[in-house]
Design a protein that fits this description.
Elements: H1 4-13, H2 18-36, E1 39-42, H3 44-59, E2 71-75, H4 102-109, E3 113-118, E4 130-131, E5 135-136, H5 152-159, E6 165-170, H6 176-182, E7 185-188, E8 208-213, H7 216-226, E9 257-260, H8 269-284, E10 291-292, H9 299-317, H10 319-323, H11 330-341, H12 344-365, E11 370-374, H13 396-401, E12 405-409, E13 420-425, H14 430-444
Parallel strand pairs: 2-3, 2-6, 9-10, 9-11
Antiparallel strand pairs: 1-3, 4-5, 6-8, 7-8, 7-12, 11-13, 12-13
Helix pairs in contact: 2-3, 7-14, 9-11, 9-12
């Protein structure tokens, strides 16, 4: 699949059309997605009708936006009117969205073409996308392995080349982890820059909606077009009006970058090797990359504190399903039950430490344009094996700090699996962070 920019260039030149692209996408999904299972529902009729309307606009030289005619997929916990809104849960199999989520409404207004709904980990509370009710999604970049989660189907759809981008959600790393495992790019925006209205929530305090795409340039095109707070929400009070203005290209030599120390966190050798190679290349280009430490940050402890918050809030959100004994996996039921039985004192203690660590991170990292660290301590692992508990050790700090963070795919060694380089930027500096990622990507491919 071509990038968003290449697609719109073809449309403008008359070399292709949205209808031709969508027809090819649908044929490709029909031929290959049976083995990958990235999609839980494909809306062929809706996609073709939207593509025909986009054809007419391009013929009239009046596209709605840079996303006009670009196909995409939506994670199954984000409302698309008329399509299933399952959140990967069995008891929601017949739930049909009655209206579009805020993000989907903006995508429609921009002329983007929704191909369908992508698979996800059950309730978004997990990181394998091995869903007992909607199927196991395979990793196109590592056959037989998990694509990560919980936005695994979205990342798999992009990695397979079905679509140039998709929309997922990130609570403690659920956009960045699958992007890393699948070898694509994924952004967790600053909270509020992509509204969560219409999302089946997992955690009121931690959920973000974010794009997954082949390149950071594609992510920038999405953010530039549909980003911005939802008026009348608490997040809208703090967003600066000029947040889009930092999207111009950057020179790496003019940036203040650093390596974020992960302390004693165990990281697999193949991840460290790919990360060290990336750092060595940047250093050879003339960059100085000091190591910076967040006072008191223990990656494993912060992840556990964040998970405790998520379990408690998820238990409140899904209390009716739990009380009504709705069908769900034993794993999910155990986590929600734990959230129900958690004492107020334990929740308060975990929340205090989690948000305090996030504050210290925000204060420390404000001195840099971006800091670099791996996305995950491991690469994609085989389906059917026990998921490492450490998966979100390195991603949860950005959620605690309420900072933008992205996964940038590093070059894959022969026979190796994808590894993601994580970049964490300043609050509301998402567009500059994406520009930095593009510059690093160009350097890594030089």
């Amino acid at each position: 699949m071509k990038t968003i920019a290449d697609l719109t260039s073809d449309y403008a030149a008359g070399a292709s059309s949205p209808s031709r692209v969508v027809a090819a996408v649908l044929a490709d999904i029909a031929a290959r997605d049976g083995a990958i299972r990235a999609f839980t529902r494909v809306d062929a009729a809706g996609a073709l009708a939207t593509a025909e309307a986009s054809d007419r606009r391009w013929r009239a030289e009046a596209p709605l936006s840079p996303l006009d005619g670009a196909p995409l997929t939506i994670k199954a916990n984000i409302a698309v009117v008329g399509l299933p809104l399952t959140a990967g849960m069995a008891h929601r199999r017949g739930a049909i969205a009655e209206r579009d989520s805020t993000v989907v409404a903006r995508l429609r207004a921009a002329g983007a073409i929704i191909i369908g709904m992508s698979n996800m980990h059950e309730a978004a509370l997990g990181s394998t996308t091995d869903n007992p009710y909607y199927g196991r999604t395979d990793n196109p970049a590592a056959t037989g392995c998990t694509p990560g989660g919980s936005s695994g189907g979205t990342a798999a759809a992009v990695a397979a080349g079905f679509v140039p981008f998709g929309i997922g959600s990130d609570t403690l790393g659920s956009v960045r982890l699958p992007a890393s495992y699948c070898g694509v790019a994924g952004l967790k925006p600053t909270p509020g820059l992509l509204p969560v209205g219409g999302l089946i929530e997992l955690s009121w305090s931690l959920d973000s909606v974010g794009p997954i795409g082949a390149t950071p340039d594609d992510l920038a095109a999405v953010m530039r077009t549909i980003g911005g707070p939802e008026p009348g929400t608490a997040e809208a009070e703090n967003v600066p009006d000029n947040w889009r203005q930092a999207s111009q290209p950057v020179r790496l030599s003019a940036l203040k970058l650093a390596i974020l120390s992960t302390g004693a966190a165990p990281i697999d050798d193949d991840v460290l090797q790919a990360f060290d190679l990336a750092i060595a290349r940047l250093t050879r280009s003339g960059l100085t990359l000091p190591r910076v430490t967040i006072d008191g940050w223990d990656p494993s402890r912060t992840r556990r504190e964040g998970l405790l918050i998520v379990e408690a809030e998820a238990a409140a959100i899904h209390k009716q399903a739990l009380a009504g004994k709705a069908p769900m996996s034993n794993e999910l039921r155990a986590m929600l039950t734990y959230g129900c039985t958690l004492s107020a004192a334990r929740f308060a203690e975990a929340a205090r430490e989690f948000w305090a660590t996030g504050f210290r991170a925000r204060q420390t990292l404000a001195a840099f344009d971006a800091v670099l660290l791996p996305v995950a301590p491991q690469t994609a692992f085989m389906h059917g094996t026990k998921a490492p508990v450490s998966q979100a050790d390195l991603t949860s700090i950005a959620n605690a700090a309420r900072l933008p963070a992205l996964s940038l795919p590093l070059p894959v060694t022969p026979g190796g699996k994808p590894v993601g380089l994580q970049l964490i930027g300043r609050r509301y500096d998402d567009m500059r962070l994406l520009a930095i990622a593009t510059a690093i990507e160009a350097e890594s491919q030089a």
